Amino acid sequence: MIVSAKDLLQALQVNPTKPVNHQTLSSVEDLEQVVSYSMLHCAAMERTFINADSFYNIVHVATALSHKVKTKLTPFFFFVITIITSCILL
Fold it and tell me: In terms of Cα–Cα distance, which of 42, 3, 48 is closest to 30?
């Protein structure tokens, strides 16, 4: 599933914070910080979620957004969710 990172973070009601390059993610706030960091540096990033509850909450919100996706996605940054059981360490 591919959704706009901006739309996803707005739907998750996350307030922008400082960019941080977390190696693993455990919260929606961590996600927002990594997205901000990657946009600041124009870099793609892959991270593992170590908190299953946060991960599934984000997947639920992203699923709802993916049904609203238009044929053309205009933002240059997208959040891609790949559900692989090994990504959830809990």
Answer: 48
* Triad 28, 44, 78: Cα angle to 5°: 60
Chain centroid to CA 39: how far? 12
Tens of pLDDT, residues 5-61:
888 889 999 988 899 999 989 999 999 999 888 888 888 788 888 888 888 898 889
Strands 48-49 and 24-25: parallel
Give pTM, 2 decimals. Answer: 0.73
* C-alpha span between 70 and 13 (Å, rounded): 21
Taken in order 30, 31, 34, 35, is the CA torsion positive or negative?
A: negative
Residues near 22 by Cβ (< 8 Å), separated by ≥ 6?
A: 30, 33, 34, 47
